[in-house]
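User: Hi! I'm working on a homework problem where we have to compare a predicted structure to a textbook description. Could you give me the structure for the chain below?
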Amino acid sequence: MQHINKKYYEGQENELHILHDINLTVRSGEFVSLVGESGSGKSTMMNIIGALDRPTSGKYYLSGEDISEMDDDYLSEIRNHEIGFVFQSAYMIPRITALENVEVPLMYGGMSRRERRDRAMELLEMVGMGERYKHKANELSGGQNQRVAIARALACEPSIILADEPTGALDSKTGHLIMDIFHKLHDEQHKTIVLITHSKELAAETERIVTISDGYILSDEKNELFKLKRDSRRNDPDADKMHYATSEGGAANELQ
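Assistant: Happy to help. Predicted structure tokens:
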């Protein structure tokens, strides 16, 4: 992101300047948090990073390509194939199973039904939900639904995982288990992960912490305790005993 500004207009005279001259580069394979209080501008940054919104001015490069002025159809393709979204709410389709929910993004990629089902099952097993593939959302806990949401976000093998308050609706222990999945994705699959959060504690689990306030980047720091946090999670006797499938694939794309 280069010199990104975002403004909203209410009528002809009222201007809301949300982001001010933002410069940010996230490199391939990084695990970065954007941390700030409500109203800091972090959600607006997330929308631009996720190709859900455009900046008023400035440039946003994804894999070296300026997408800040691309049309809606192109941005839709970017969202469908390059970015995996995980939100605070899992947004499961209630009337279908966990397996079918993970299959949904794969329906537009030319896969056969068998290929879609195999891919979805592999992802559910990776996040520890293989035995519950027939369950619907109302038959799963909040943490289990969030695992399914992570599997769905990975379905199209995105370069970037964009996680917006992914543990916000969960209790502390379940939130730790969800973060463990992100650590595994980062360590084993070298996924680029951008975590949006108000929690400094959660941000402390990422390798780089970008602090935002009133639409400005206040600090952008390497987290010297990242490895310690990660190792302590692995050594936690209560850590989730899940099977993680490793996948072949290239390094994640850079956004700038």
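For your comparison, note the following. Residues 95-155 form one domain. Residues 237-252 have pLDDT under 50 and may be disordered. Good luck with the assignment!
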